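>> received
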Amino acid sequence: MALRKASPAFWDRLAQEIEGDATSDLFTRGRYATDASMYQSFPAGVACPKSESDVAIVLEMAREEGLSVIARGGGTSTAGQALGEGVVLDFTKYMRGIGAIDVENARCVVEPGCTPAALAAVLEPHGLFLPVEIASAQSATVGGMLGNNSSGLRALRYGAMRDRIISAMALVADGQRVHFRAIAEDETARFPGRDRLLDLLQFGEAHEKDIAREFPLRPPGTPEPPAYDLRALLSYSEDQNLARLLAGSEGTLAIATSIELKLARLPGTRALGVCRFADLGGALRVIPKIALLNPTAIELLDRTLIDIVAARRDPHAFRLLQGDPEALLIVEFDEENPVDNTRLLKGLSETLAEADKGRFPLVEIIGENNRAALWQLRHNAVTRAWRMKSAAQPLSFMEDGAVPLHRLAAYGAELAALLGKHGVRSALYGSAGRGCLIVRPVLNLRHTNDRERMRALSDEMAALIVRHGGVLSGGHGIGLARSEGLERALAPGALRLFADLKAQLDPGFVLNPGKIIRAPDFDDAALMRAPREAKAADVPVALTWEAEATPARALEHARRCAGHALCRTAEQRFVCPSFAATHDERDSARGRAQTVRLALSGQLGDEALGSPAMIETMALCVSCKACGSACPFGIDIPKMKVEALAAARAAGRFSRAQELYANLADYTDRAARWRWFLALRDLLPGLARFTERKLGLAADRPWPRWAGRRFRAPVEAEPGPRGLVALFADTFNRSFETANLRAAQSVLEAAGYGVVAFTDREDGALCCGRCAYDAGDIEKARAQATRLSRAAAAYAERGVPVIGLEPNCVLMMRDEYAALGLPIADPPPVLLFEEFLARRIGDGGLSLPLTAIEATVVLHSHCHERAHGVDAHAEAVLRLIPDLTITPAPPSCCGLNGLMGLTPDTLDASLAMAEQALFPAIRKAGRDALVSATGYSCRKQVQDGLGRPARHPAMLLDLALKGDAEIVG
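>> returned
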């Protein structure tokens, strides 16, 4: 159907008609213009349905408006399956429910937006699992997996989604509700869309001979063709189940709103063996023999991935890398009887010895933890191979061809030769036990010659796959990247059958046009992402990116996001807490990175970087840095947020709240004199609402209480028996929690140190610049950071260690100072209090006369400590206290940092982040448990959200020193 832009009135009406959300602003459209592929296509708008009726309304209104409808899962597809110019349906925000679980019959029903990781967590206590286990399980969706006919790690034993689908409730293009399922020959029961299914069966009967000829039953070890499973229409086929039509259809035939799945029982035992080879060909040649042992998985890693594993220096990899192999095969068995697994491993060892004459003995992986660690190693290596810090990138176009096992070695050799002929690098890996090799040639699509090379490679790779009797996709789907290739891979009769089936269910091409049928050229420049971002827009940047304060460098950083959406998960808590709280693409690290990329490349209009829409995009970023440490590409969203705030400030768009926060260090001493008056804000009715209107600080968030007793350490002091240290009184602790500083001083003195104040001898108190930086006042932050760096260097010259309490401030000197254009000192100029003490424990130089505290303490580490790998120190130090039971809180974010959680528009999300893991952990420990948190904002969040005090570790150590203080949880 002809595509055109929808009118603003259409979107207003759609937003009113559905329960869910509908929007068509440029920034939202930009976030949905990409996935994990090389493509970019701005949709007309996005709808997030809450129910099947919402989907029906979208379909009806889109048809009337002349728009197509594209169903989208997690946006993790590598071939552009969920991109298009129509209305994108995002099921992940609301329609992610898990319905009835039939444990006895191993079945369940889910909504399409449910992630396989969420489903696995619910099924595991029942001893069940969905055995289609894909690398993107944390962020992909079951609906997307159905559309792709995903296969996954253990498909060799358990099959693909096509083998797991029992039925699906779906809407076809005209809005009719159809229950896709198997129909018995004599069945008379009525169900939704029965007439539509009977029409499909008549279609199958009319084309029975053609279908049998074009899609013959394939022998074991031969991959099934992608796209439409027309054998599901044959009356005599064991696979006659019309739900199978949806597996691989990529949302082009119908939109599933409820999916019934066939599950498997979790195996009682698993066994894992790693085969090493001197060359890739040797690994490929032995796979058919290994497959005869009936393993659950055979995964290949080539030299590229082995080098990535070796660079990580993981202890689990040591045995695997002995002998410097060129290829690895990870082979898994999961027989119910452990004796059978042992027998199969013996058979594997014998097969390997026969194949390579005993050069590399089999490496058995003993223990469930070690097996899990090995699979994680493989996963990490694969994700590292997805992206490079260069303009040339590994590209997914003809990426996952699969051939019969007996042709695999020849196919692999010819594929490697083909890449060599074109002078292109690529890793070769994947589920080789199914005849599938993943190949992602490294090309720079900003260059015409590389685009021409991609075209030649794609054509020759497709021909190679077909010549070896293979299929274009072994489980990643067809999408924009491979739909054109179907014309080469399938006979004209097969293509006509596909077109006729499409016309049967969607004659107007409303559903996801351009996929499978009537595809555009896969290398159409209008669809490519790279050429549009070849040059950065003339956008001034305030921060240093890759050693340069230029928009080009900032754009290069934003381009690192490959769109694989490892950040889009609610199951792994320490990834992106804002997305876990809202399930909104805007609030994911991917959504933010792509928005910044579009802004810096000029695709969102002038002044987009500092626009209100960009500030809204960044509003719920709590700057936890999980994106930088958890993302394999090191995307730094907090830095992008500051860049956006700085651009807004330069344009004169900054709030009173931002000004108050940026200048906190300047006025805090004066404010302390008015502490009693400021405390009235939370006591007098109406005053909190008044200050919210005037200052922009949430009325329901109590203000911090300024400390009455100031902290004053001497500027000069005599060294103790172990020397002299300087204590950094950061803005937060010297303003609101001076007791922490006094406790730290007491502990350090008891440890044998003289304690002096860390000050600038000319200007007095120092500030790291954190508040100004987080509010986008870069010049102020740089000036404050420069003063502190100069003072720290002076103390370092005197041999006096500087110690600080607040991770937000201390660790800024190891990271954000580079963004401010300042050198990062090595060793660090300031150590965290717990870090300093833990080092003394390590070298045997710490002795504290601590008395027992018979209590349990829930210990929460600051996010920045986790990001910098120093989060273990607090627990090590608190373990010095006799009888204190330490319960570490699950790695998670408290949800409060900077202005995130202090303003009315961020308060609810802030508390929702705390409810993901921290608050439940504290409640579970009971009212008598103590709470300790290293960060000021974490302690305030616990106090405000739960009404319970949270103490800095220094306070607990000081209490143990005193020995007579009553401690109340």
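>> The longest helix spans residues 448-467.
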